[in-house]
Amino acid sequence: MGTLFMDLHRSPYFDLFTIHNQGLRLSVGAFRTSPILSLYILCNEPSLELRRERLALNLFFKIKSDDSHPSHYNVVNPKYGTLFSIRPSFTPTFGLRIGKILRSINTVDFPVLNKSDEFPPWKDISVSFIDVFEKWHKSTTHNLVYRSIFYDHRQQFSGYEPVFTDGSKADNLVGTAVVIRNSIVSGGLHELCSVFTSEIYAIYLALVEIAQELQKDYLILGFQERHRSTEMRFPFKPPYSAEVC
Q1: Which of 6, 63, 103, 179 has the least C-beta neighbours within 10 A?
Q2: Which residue has the higher pLDDT, 56 or 114?
C-alpha cells in the first residue's frame, strides 16, 4: 500500500502526517512542542515518507527479480521521462519515481538475480551443522590450539579435496574469494552488501567451481564470524558430494 501514496497531494498527505505525529506523541507522552524528529528517535519509528520509499524499493526489486511479472518491462524500462519533466503536474510512472529515490540515496540500480523457485519445505535437504570451535573462544584460546583442532579436522577428512572460502568488508569495499588447489577465484560485491553476504557468496562460488570439477568429494572451509567453522552436507547429484566447514 505504501507505493500507492508516493505522490499524494498536499492536503491528504498533511492529514496522514498529522495523525501519525499525534499517535507518536500519545505513545510516549510527549508535549505538543516536542520536535517530530525527536519523536521518531524515541519511538524507533521512521517517518511516513521514509516508510513509503522503503516499501516502494521492496516492490521495485521484487518486480525486477521476476521476469514474468506483468509490470516488469515497464518498471525496469520506464518511458516518457521527458514528457513528465516538462509537465510537473502529471504524476510520473512507478519506474521513474523509483529512479529518483535511488539517486537520492546515491545507490546505482544494480542487477538483481532472477527469482527462482524456492525449495519445498516438505522435502528433506539433509543439512547438518558441526561447529568444531564451539567450545573455544578467541580471547582465551591460543593460536596453537586452533591449529591443532584444524589439523585434526583435516585428518578426519583427508580423503576430501579442500576448498577455502572467505569474505570481507572494509569501508566501501566488499570482496569474496575461493581457493581450490592452485586456482583462485575472487570478485567484488556491492558496497551495501554485508560481510555475511560476501561469505555466503563465496560458498556459492565454490559450489559453482566444484560443479565443473571431476573430483568426487570436496571439503569447503569457510572463515566465518567469531572464527567458527560450520559444516554442512549438501545432497549433490552423483558422483558429486561436498561438505562445508
Answers
A1: 103
A2: 56
Rounded distance between C-alpha atoms, residue 55 and residue 3, angstroms = 6
CA atoms within 13 A on the CB side of 10: 1
* DSSP code string of 178-222: EEETTEEEEEEE-TTS-HHHHHHHHHHHHHHHHHT---SEEEEEE
> Cβ distance 172 to 202 under 8 Å?
no
Q: Which of 112, 106, 117, 118 is nearest to 59 (CA)?
A: 112
Q: Which three cell numbers stand for residue 236?
A: 549433490
pLDDT at 158: 83
Q: Name the 3-class secondary structure at 232.
A: strand
Fold held by 120-244: Nucleotidyltransferase; domain 5 (3.30.420)
Sign for the CA dihedral angle at 109, 115, 121, 125 comes to negative
pTM: 0.47
